[in-house]
Design a protein that fits this description.
There is one protein chain. This protein has one domain: Lipid/polyisoprenoid-binding, YceI-like (Lipocalin), CATH 2.40.128. Helix content is 11%, strand content 47%. Strand 7 and strand 8 form a beta hairpin.
Length: 188
C-alpha cells in the first residue's frame, strides 16, 4: 500500500515538531549550601564542613536518568572547629592541598529508589585518585529546590591519612558525608 505524499510529509512534520523529553533543569548551589563530614579520632567523634564549594546540578525527578552533577570542593576550606586538626588536614598525609587543592564530584547517571529518594552514581576525585562514590539523596521540589544527600567515603582508597594515620584504630576508614544544597536556576 502506498501512502499519499501529503500524508507522509505531514507525518514527518509532526514528528519533527513533537516535543522531545524536556531537558533537566540546570541549577547552582546558593550561599546556604552545606557540605559536612564526620569521623572520629581515637574514638572521639568530630564533625567538619567544607566552607567553599561550587555545585552545578541538572536534575528532573521525573527523568532522573538525565541528571548531571558537577561539584568542585576547595579542600583548604575544611573546618572542624579545631585549628590544629584543620592544619593537619592540609598536610601531605591527608588532603595535600599544596599539590591537589581541589576535589570534585561528577555524576551523569541517577536512578530512583523505591523509597522515593534517588542515588547519583558519581565519581569522587581526591588527591589525584578517582573512585565511584554513590550519593543517596532526596529532592525537595519547589521554585528553589533543595538536594539533601549522604554518602560514605573510604578515605584510605584516596590516600587520605597515610603513614601512621592509616591505622583505622586511630581514624576509621569510612568518613560520613552529608550535604544540604538549596538551589537556584542557573543564570538567575
Amino acid at each position: 500500500m502506498r501512502l499519499p505524499a501529503s500524508l507522509v510529509r505531514s507525518g514527518l512534520l509532526a514528528l519533527c515538531l513533537a516535543p522531545g523529553p524536556a531537558p533537566a533543569a540546570d541549577y547552582v548551589a546558593t550561599g546556604d549550601a552545606r557540605l559536612d563530614f564526620s569521623s572520629s579520632y581515637e574514638g572521639e567523634a568530630f564533625e567538619g564542613r567544607f566552607r567553599r564549594f561550587e555545585a552545578r546540578i541538572a536534575f528532573d525527578p521525573d527523568a532522573p536518568q538525565s541528571c548531571r552533577f558537577e561539584v568542585r570542593i576547595a579542600l583548604a576550606s575544611a573546618d572542624t572547629g579545631l585549628p590544629e586538626r584543620d592544619d593537619m588536614l592540609m598536610e601531605r598525609e591527608f588532603f595535600d592541598v599544596g599539590r591537589q587543592p581541589m576535589a570534585y564530584y561528577r555524576a551523569d547517571r541517577c536512578r530512583a529508589l523505591p523509597d522515593g529518594g534517588f542515588v547519583a552514581e558519581g565519581r569522587l576525585g581526591l588527591r589525584g585518585v578517582e573512585r565511584p562514590v554513590p550519593l543517596c539523596f532526596r529532592w525537595i521540589p519547589g521554585e528553589s529546590p533543595v538536594l539533601e544527600g549522604e554518602a560514605g567515603v573510604d578515605r584510605l582508597a584516596f590516600g587520605v591519612g597515610t603513614g601512621d594515620w592509616a591505622d583505622t584504630d586511630l581514624i576509621p576508614a569510612e568518613v560520613a558525608i552529608r550535604t544540604r544544597v538549596p538551589l537556584r536556576r542557573a543564570g538567575d
